[in-house]
Structures are given as structure tokens and as C-alpha cells.
Design a protein that fits this description.
This protein is of the alpha/beta class. The chain starts with a helix and ends with a helix. It is 42% helix and 14% strand. Strands 5-6-4-3-9-10-11 form a 7-stranded mixed beta sheet, with helices on both faces. The chain has a two-stranded parallel sheet with strand order 1-2. It is built from 15 helices and 11 strands. It has 2 domains: 84 residues, no CATH class; 254 residues, ATPase, nucleotide binding domain (Nucleotidyltransferase, domain 5, 2-Layer Sandwich), CATH 3.30.420.
Length: 366
């Protein structure tokens, strides 16, 4: 897209580092690696096909919009175009550097909660965490190392889970009548039943490991699958609400495992900055705080991915001197969710059950 817009062949360090193994900390491609995996032709061509000019996110490309691109977009020729970021990484830039009282960038984990979920932590020194991608130098926040985890199915996992319940049809009709998705409607129903504080009563004995598409982090197990324990014959709407809450808790316990793995390697995360469409619900945010035991904060922007991209454009246009200044100047932390201390013991027991179910699933698969 940036080539179509500007004619520049420069590549964003984010894309080539995270997806094409560029060694950003050494500003080079690893020729030996490409030859070992059968892609020596790329090395023979001096990597011209995948990029020889690698630039930081926010760098101004070429001379800005070409005349043709400007005409296509209805903008002025020469309008600055920035080197971009992968979508989730743009969301990270749009949130982790926001103005607020909860720590600095290295202590904040971005949790981009959509169809899938991405977790992104930034460190001053490289940290190698089993099952977590990276560390990647300057792949999100310039000058910092990025560790990227996540869950292959997050919002999609909850949608799939609740559609399996016998009351899903009735609930879907009610949700549609109110102009809501099923998951959004269930979140409001749980909130009306005293919300996260009522979690023990809502979920009862239901335990959910929502790994329908495997475990991306921290176990890097593509063969893992979802498990549900504690089912009964209840087909009521209340039962469906409980299943929904149990599923969200399962995602939270998965995030807790990622945080624990990063803590074990010295990454000082103490705050989760949540964003993404599936993370807009106050109930979901509180459940994430309760299940992980972490403070959860939300950006004031409803579209942090777009905001992060706008920050890059602002840097390219000279409105801010660098990405760090744009993050602080264009974003602000909003609502804060503290873990409920009265539920900590209950969630600790549920987390132990979650891990036991994971182990049982692995044993069954052999």
C-alpha cells in the first residue's frame, strides 16, 4: 500500500522483523538462515524482493502521495505517508504509551482483544520467553524490544462457545431485537446480575478452556483443543449467561499464563492496557482484571489501531518529533479496573482447574 501511495520500496521494520526474520538489532538479513531453509535465491538477489531499505515505523516515505495516488484518494499530492505497522502493533502504539498514572511503557502489556487476541510487551533489553514470539527490536515501540503472545481464538472462541448452548437461538433473537451481537447481549445480561462480583454464582461449576484453535502462547501447542467441564442439563438463559462468563474467565486464565511466563523471564508487566472490539465491555475488562490479578486500564480511544496509525502519520508529517512523543500526546488512559481481592482465592482455584484441564487434554491426545 505504501508503494502504491508513494512509489517508495522502503519496508517497515515491523513487518520484515516480525514476519520475515529481519535482524533489526543488527540492521541485516541473515543470509545463512535463508540458505538453510531453501530460500537462498533471495540471498542471491541481495534480498531485493523482500526489502533492502528498511525504515522505522513513522518514517516519511518517498515524496509523499504521488499525483495518481492523490487523485485516487482525493488528497493533495505530496501529503506525507508513514511507514506503517501490523494492525495489532498499531493498536499497541495507540495504547501502551498513553498518558496516565499506571506505569510506563515497559510495565504495560497491550491486550488487543478481537476475533483473536494479541499481547505485546516492550522491554529495554531482549527477553526470551518460551512460547512467546520475539524479542523483536523496534518492531512496535522504537528502541524497545517487543515480545508478542496471544490467543488464536478469543472473541471468536466466545462466539463459538455460546452458539453451542440450547438457549442460543432464543438469546440471539433477543439480542437482535436490541441491535446487539449475542456476546454483547450476554455481557449486559451478566452485568445486570451484579456483574463480575457475581461470577461464582453465575458460572457455578462450569470450567472452560476455550482453546478451539490451539494454544498460541505460552505453550505454542497447535494441537490443543477446547475443553468444558461441569455441564448439566440446564438449558435456561441463565445457564447460557453462566457459560459466557466462564468462557471469558477461561480467556483471562490463558492471559494469566502469558503474564506468568513473562514475569519468569524478568519482564516487569504490572498493568494490562485492553483494546479491541471484544474488549469494550466493562464486564469483560473487570473479568480480565480478576482472572489475571492485574490492573486493567482502557484507552479513551474506541479505535486504538486507527489511532496508532494516525500517530505514525503525525510523526511523518512532523507534528511530533518521534513515536514516543506522539503516543503521549495523542492518547490517554481512561477507565481503570482493579482486581477484586475478595475473589482472588476463588479465581486461584479456578486457575488451577484450568491448568489441570489443559494437562488432561494433552494426556488424552497422547
Amino acid at each position: 500500500l505504501t508503494w502504491r501511495a508513494t512509489g517508495s520500496l522502503a519496508r517497515s521494520v515491523c513487518t520484515v522483523t516480525c514476519k520475515w526474520t529481519y535482524l533489526a538489532h543488527e540492521s541485516r538479513w541473515d543470509e545463512t538462515y535463508f540458505r538453510k531453509i531453501g530460500l537462498g535465491a533471495l540471498a542471491d538477489e541481495a534480498f531485493t524482493r523482500i526489502g533492502t531499505e528498511i525504515v522505522p515505523a513513522g518514517a516519511a516515505l518517498g515524496g509523499g502521495l504521488t499525483a495518481q495516488a492523490a487523485a485516487d484518494l482525493g488528497l493533495n499530492p505530496g501529503t506525507e505517508v508513514a511507514a506503517g505497522l501490523i494492525d495489532a502493533h498499531a493498536g499497541g502504539v495507540g495504547t501502551v504509551g498513553a498518558r496516565g498514572d499506571f506505569g510506563s511503557v515497559p510495565s504495560r502489556m497491550a491486550y488487543v482483544f478481537g476475533t483473536s487476541a494479541c499481547t505485546m510487551s516492550s522491554t529495554a533489553e531482549p527477553a526470551f520467553v518460551d512460547g512467546v514470539w520475539g524479542p523483536y527490536f523496534s518492531a512496535m515501540v522504537p528502541g524497545l524490544w517487543l515480545n508478542e503472545g496471544g490467543q488464536s481464538a478469543a472473541g471468536a472462541a466466545i462466539d463459538h462457545l455460546v452458539r453451542m448452548h440450547p438457549a442460543a437461538g432464543e438469546a440471539t433473537a433477543k439480542a437482535q431485537a436490541e441491535g446487539l451481537s449475542l456476546s454483547a447481549w450476554l455481557s449486559l445480561q451478566a452485568q445486570s446480575r451484579n456483574g463480575a462480583a457475581a461470577t461464582p454464582a453465575l458460572v457455578g461449576g462450569i470450567h472452560v478452556v476455550p482453546e478451539f484453535l490451539g494454544n498460541r502462547a505460552p505453550f505454542a501447542d497447535p494441537d490443543a483443543r477446547a475443553l468444558i467441564a461441569g455441564l448439566d442439563l440446564d438449558t435456561s438463559l441463565d445457564s447460557l449467561v453462566g457459560l459466557y462468563v466462564a468462557g471469558v474467565c477461561g480467556l483471562g486464565y490463558g492471559a494469566r499464563q502469558i503474564v506468568r511466563a513473562e514475569h519468569d523471564k524478568g519482564i516487569p508487566v504490572d498493568t494490562i492496557v485492553v483494546s479491541g472490539g471484544a474488549g469494550q465491555s466493562p464486564l469483560v475488562r473487570q473479568l480480565l482484571a480478576d482472572t489475571t490479578g492485574m490492573v486493567v486500564v482502557a484507552s479513551t480511544s474506541p479505535e486504538p489501531v486507527l489511532l496508532g496509525s494516525a500517530m505514525l502519520g503525525a510523526v511523518a508529517a512532523g507534528a511530533y518529533k518521534d513515536v514516543a512523543a506522539a503516543m503521549a500526546g495523542m492518547s490517554e488512559l481512561g477507565e481503570v479496573y482493579h482486581p477484586d481481592a475478595t475473589l482472588a482465592g476463588w479465581h486461584a482455584k479456578r486457575f488451577a482447574a484450568f491448568e489441570l484441564l489443559q494437562q488432561a487434554g494433552k494426556a488424552i491426545r497422547g
